[in-house]
Design a protein that fits this description.
The complex is a heterodimer. By secondary structure, chain A is α/β, with parallel strands linked by helices. Chain A is built from 13 helices and 11 strands. Chain B is mostly beta strands. Chain B folds into 2 domains: about 50 residues, no CATH class; about 90 residues, OB fold (Dihydrolipoamide Acetyltransferase, E2P), CATH 2.40.50.840. Chain B is built from 2 helices and 7 strands, in the order αβββαββββ. In chain B, strand 6 and strand 7 form a beta hairpin. Classes of the chains: A alpha/beta, B mainly beta. Chains A and B meet through helix 4, helix 5 and strand 5 of A and strand 3 and strand 5 of B. Strand 5 of chain A pairs antiparallel with strand 3 of chain B, so a sheet runs across the interface. Bound molecules: zinc ion. Zinc ion binds next to loops of chain B. Chain B: InterPro entries: ChsH2_C, ChsH2_Znr, NA-bd_OB-fold, Thioester_dehydratase-like. Chain B: Pfam families: OB_ChsH2_C, zf-ChsH2. Chain B: This is DUF35 domain-containing protein.
């Protein structure tokens, strides 16, 4: 793994508009995002020879390759566990490129979650194990499962709804600066948060991510190749996946210690292979399908100690100018929920110096994938 | 998940989980336990993660536990559940097997609906005991939980 350090780079990023409802099909959106990313890199689609995506992606590499006019592909991979796979797509492409299996890779996510059906309403598609142990009791949605952990976390560590609000607010404030965000020019107040409807107590409406139609993509090439591309390269410094011992998927409450999720496992590998530590991270893009995932991830990735993640959010720590500016495009809570891929593209913009909420001089960025499912993470550097 | 007439979900049972539900139908709470090293495990699976033995037994539990955490779901939900929302869903840590945590619902009586107990009465750490009843008429018997005190 030390052999992977900075050997590959993200050379291009692309995206479609984000909205509750877009007229085009997922496949069309995927093609637009990938072509935009290739254009951003200045690389012709015929040079693409590697593809990486993650589960719940309906546009497969065969369809995409054909549509964009890719060349012969020699590497393709699909990572499991929905939003936990976002960062792993870049990691798999980086590994393929570092080992000479391919030269130009694209990763993408296209999703019509805003106008399409909610996945949890498809009861037939829910796996018998572990769903047989939860669904009959009305734990139907990811919000119910994370809510269970959130209540326990509040009980054990004195976390409050105000801590979760600080997370929602930081993301919303950044979205208010980002014209591409669904929540651009739509401020959030504490009163709005505290009086909003419940989804699964202790989680309210604003503790939950958006529902979005949209697609994003990025292009990964060797560091050497990236230096000749149209935009400033963003190096893939360290990568990791995390599936902890005795983990059960999103219903992590069957492990001995449910409040240490996959982030902890991914983090150990991520930092082991890095030239810098959590204290050197300039900006973070942390998977935020639900606000409690942020304090849990802050602990897992070593920004604070066990049980200190909620307190970490106090005093504007997650805002621009704070200790760890968070989700600077608005994240899943306020820019778009496209299974975390927008966190990767925003990490790239920060290190290029082109974010709408630019952290001055940002040179290092942590990007994480879904927490409480088998996960993945990236350390990016300029 | 299979849906009984009332629209509540029945467990879709797999090979590993079948004994749990068969015992539940007889009104017994049993947990898969390694026949070699004695470690309980949940959810059920083919072999023991501690000693890798494939031999198991199903140990009878006292049926007592404590609420480890709980949520109160509100719509949007599947129609049957939306009809009784807000209701409680709890995670019960078993007294006889700490760290074995079963999802369920605290109800006022075995056959009472999911919203039959005011969520304000629930606390982490509260004692509960198991009873068995179908989630809906004609459904599979599943564990339900009664608060130990008033
Ligand atoms: Zn054993």
């Amino acid at each position: 793994m030390a052999g992977l350090k900075d050997t590959a780079a993200i050379a291009g990023i692309g995206q479609t508009a984000f909205a509750k409802r877009l007229p085009e099909a997922e496949k069309t959106l995927a093609c637009r995002a990938v072509l935009a990313a290739l254009d951003d890199a200045g690389i012709d689609a015929s040079e693409v020879d590697a593809f990486a995506s993650y589960t719940m992606e309906e546009t497969d590499e065969v369809e995409l390759a054909k549509a964009i006019g890719a060349g012969d592909a020699t590497f393709f991979a699909k990572v499991g566990y929905g939003g936990g796979g976002s960062c792993a797509t870049v990691a798999h492409l980086a590994a393929a490129i570092a080992t000479g299996q391919a030269s130009v890779g694209v990763a993408w996510r296209s999703r019509k979650r805003g106008s399409g059906p909610r996945p949890w309403t498809n009861t037939a598609a829910q796996l018998p194990t572990p769903a047989q142990w939860t669904r009959p009791f009305g734990l139907l949605r990811p919000a119910d499962e994370i809510g269970m952990l959130a209540r326990r976390y509040m009980h054990e560590y004195g976390a409050t709804r105000d801590h979760f609000f600080q997370v929602a607010l930081a993301c919303r404030n950044r979205a208010n600066q980002n014209p591409a965000a669904m929540m651009y020019e739509r401020p959030l107040t504490r009163e709005m948060y505290m009086t909003s409807r419940w989804i699964s107590e202790p989680l309210c409406l604003f503790d939950n991510c958006l529902e979005t139609d949209g697609a994003l993509a990025c292009v990964v090439v060797s560091a050497e190749r990236a230096r000749d591309c149209r935009n400033r390269p963003v190096y893939v410094h360290s990568v990791a996946q995390g599936l902890p011992a005795q983990h059960h998927g999103m219903v992590n409450y069957w492990t001995d210690d449910p409040l240490t999720g996959p982030a902890w496992t991914a983090a150990r590998r991520l930092w082991k292979d890095a030239d810098f530590g959590p204290q050197d991270v300039d900006v973070a893009q942390i998977y935020d399908a639900f606000t409690p995932l942020i304090p849990l991830s802050l602990e897992g990735y070593g920004f604070c100690g066990r049980g200190e993640g909620a307190a970490f959010t106090e005093g504007g720590a997650l805002e621009i100018g704070g200790r760890l500016p968070l989700n600077t495009s608005g994240g899943g809570l306020s820019e778009a929920y496209v299974h975390g891929f927008n966190l990767i593209t925003e990490g790239v913009r920060q290190l290029r110096g082109t974010s709408t909420a630019q952290v001055t001089g940002a040179a290092t960025c942590l990007v994480t994938a879904g927490e409480d499912v088998p996960t993945s993470a990236l350390l990016l550097r300029s | 998940m299979a849906e009984p007439a009332a629209g509540f979900l029945d467990p879709v049972v797999d090979e590993d989980g079948a004994p749990f539900w068969e015992y539940a139908a007889r009104g017994e709470l049993r947990v898969q336990t390694c026949a070699e090293c004695g470690e309980p495990r949940f959810p059920p699976r083919p072999c023991c993660p501690h000693c890798r033995s494939f031999a198991d037994t199903w140990r009878r539990m006292s049926g007592h536990g404590r609420i480890w955490s709980f949520v109160v779901p509100h719509p949007p939900l599947l129609p049957a559940y939306a009809g009784v929302a807000p209701y409680n869903a709890v995670l019960v840590e078993l007294t006889d097997a700490p760290r074995i945590r079963l999802a369920g619902n605290v109800v006022a009586a075995p056959g009472a609906p999911l919203d039959s107990v005011d969520p304000a009465r629930l606390r982490i750490g509260a004692g509960v005991r198991v009873v068995f009843a179908p989630a809906a008429p004609g459904g599979m018997p599943v564990p339900r939980w009664l608060l130990e005190r008033g």
